[in-house]
Amino acid sequence: METQKRTNDAGERLVSVVIPVRNEEKYIAKCVESVLNQDFPKKDMELILVDGASEDRTVAIIKDFAAKYDFIRLCENPRKTVQHALNIGIKNAVGKYVVRMDAHSEYANDYVSECVRHLEKTNAANVGGPMIARGKTRLQKVIAAAYHSPFALGGGKFHDENYEGYADTVYLGAFKRETLLKLGLYDEALPRNEDDDLNLRILESGGKVYVTPKIKSVYYPRSRYEALFKQYFEYGLWKVAVIKKHGKFARVSHLVPVLFFLFVAIFSVLSLFSGVVRLIFTAVMLVYLSLSFYFSLKSKYVSEFCDKLRLVWVHFVLHIAYGAGFFCGIFKFWNAKFRRNATFAN
Questions:
Q1: CA torsion 93→98→100→106, rounded to 10°?
Q2: Distance between CA atoms of 188 and 145, rounded to whole angstroms?
Q3: Where are the extended beta strands (E) located within the chain?
Q4: pLDDT score recorded for residue 131
Q5: Among 103, 133, 249, 273, whose Cα sits 20 to 30 Å from the Cα of 57?
Q6: CA within 13 Å, CB half, 141
Q7: Is 300 helix (H, G, I), strand (E, B) or coil?
């Protein structure tokens, strides 16, 4: 594979697209094809794929593309995590702008063009689009519906397909390379929630984060309950690390899942010994299930009744996983110290 030193073999490109990959043989071909179909001039763009020791056909597929297109480059990421991959890609990049992409996503043909246009138009430090989740399998479609459910994830602005304006985060993101270098790149001490941390550093430094529906992509979420649980457990766990690092208290939407997890864990046990506690537990769970049913039945992303019932369960998995992770994170990072990265000047 190509060495991880920054080179000028690709020439001075305007845009460097960086994609971390690991065991992505099911998605990588369509993802690369999405980049190939961009209307942005290929002579002004490079695609850097950073592989984290894939054990499937990911590397072989990428090499096939690289043999046909000289602007596609492959780098190694021996430490395997997304943060290391992104930083390797950014250090190798030759473009003025860095557009982050994800192998689990497909992109509109004008995705890169719109990223560059909005970086120049808004002067924001980070621009991106909403997270538009879709599924291929039946269960994945249900899980994707949860990403657009205010009950599941709190209704953040970047989950709204039609919102345009300033926000606290976007899906993926596009930046000036010099901005990322001045920020100190992604924090490699955070194996999850690296985008939360980066956007907080942008906002703390006086920068802006801008989301627009004109930057279009489709994200394919986890397709199994256990994979979804693991993902959101880790999100909850490392959210505490981000809060600890920045010394900022969590929003209410971050605290609700951990309070719910503690309630379920404690009251489900105590209800075995007390009728009053059992009554309280039953009442609260009925309220929770009623809200979950309401938002599931209301969802426009799933139509069949059985899938709406599955969405109720997905809500529960997301809340318990994130809450359990957040609870564990409180103990894991109680005395932890995190390095404050360098900031940038506008």
A1: -100
A2: 31
A3: 15-21, 45-51, 72-76, 97-100, 105-107, 126-129, 165-166, 171-176, 209-211, 217-219
A4: 86
A5: 133
A6: 13
A7: coil
pLDDT of residue 342: 42
Q: Helix, strand, coil % (nearest 5) of the chain? A: 50, 15, 35
Which of 106, 1, 105 lies closest to 53 in space, CA to CA?
1
Pairwise CA distance, residues 239 & 233, whole Å: 10
**Total count of residues recorded for the chain:** 346
Residue with token string 């997270």: 131
Between the CA atoms of 8, 13, 14 and 16, what dihedral angle is there, to the nearest 10 degrees?
Answer: -80
- pTM comes to 0.84
CA distances to 5, 64, 139, 176, 299 from 9, in Å: 11, 19, 44, 20, 49
- Residues 201/151, Cβ–Cβ less than 8 Å: no
- Tokens, residue 25: 């043989």
List 48's β-bridge partners, or say none: 18, 73
- Whether 54 contacts 215, CB under 8 Å: no
Query: Residue 116 has which token pair?
Result: 């560059």
Report residue 261 as tokens.
Answer: 């997890």
∠ CA 160-138-158, nearest 5°, is: 15
Mean per-residue pLDDT, 189-211? 90
Angle, helix 138-147 to helix 305-332, in steps of 10 degrees: 60
Q: What is the mean pLDDT of residues 138-166?
A: 87
For the record, the structure tokens of 28 come out as 């990588």
Task: Give yes or no for a contact between 180 and 125, defined as CB atoms under 8 angstroms apart.
Answer: no
Q: Which two tokens stand for residue 101?
A: 């992409």
DSSP 156-199: -GGG-TT--EE-S--EEEEEEHHHHHHHTSS-TT-SS-HHHHHH
Q: How confident is the model at residue 48 (pLDDT cuts 50, 70, 90)?
A: very high
Residue 5: predicted pLDDT: 40
Paired tokens of 140 = 């994945």
